[in-house]
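One such shown below:

_____
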Amino acid sequence: MTKIVLTIGGSDPFAGGGIQTDLKTFGDYHTFGISVLTSIVTLVNNNLAIHPVTKEIFLAQLKSIEQVNFSGIKIGLIANLEFIPLIKEFLQKHPDIPIILDPVLVFKEGNSAIEKEILAGIRGELAPLASLITPNLTEAETLSKRKINSLQEMKEVAILLQKEYKTAVLIKGGGRLAGERAIDLLALPETKIVEYQAQKIKAITINGAGCSLSAAITAGLTKDKLEKAVSDAKGYVYKSIQAGVMVTAEFGSVYFEESIIKSNNLPA
């Protein structure tokens, strides 16, 4: 039977990140994706804007899918403080399935009171319910209130966050740290660190890579253990960057071709 997975997040008009990429990734993993929209993101004249849906519409979406039997849930961009208790209540109704929290902190350090409250809600209300948290380096710095400039500091923050939230934490290193290889670190209970390395790719078709990775892990966890799901997801995203699509003259988005699955023994 086809597994059903849910994404709660924002809409990306370029279909490189957000729920568009999540749904495509779920499909590539041969799972069926359902979505609850938190916001619509626009980019006009290089000005990024986030337009949250109303609380009433968000709640109605959650109520619409109350009877669905999910095998996994991914949470991405929230961008509205009022959504956090609603998401928490919804997650508490699904205690026995993988919940992946991708803390899309578009506000980074948070300059306003509302942004700080959203960050506090993610930390205090949602993170403890997650099976895995998948911050990138900047998000990990924000969550931990520590700077990361080396692999050792990255390991220390991964362990710190794992102990704080008592759940697995995958820090997505990407290409920010020095060196020829991109490194991700998975922190597990009992201070176990699993390191994933790959040669850095000189490509600009990277829009949505982080969203796709967490979505792939969510789908992968419907049939595999965590370490295997992360390893497969890493391979999936690596190929998706290589096969990415130039959306404009300036940037491109990740894209995965079905033929890659067969030729590289990736999840099918």
Notes: Confidence is low (pLDDT under 50) at residues 107-111, 259-264. The longest helix spans residues 226-242. The radius of gyration is 17 Å. DSSP finds nine helices and eleven strands in the chain.
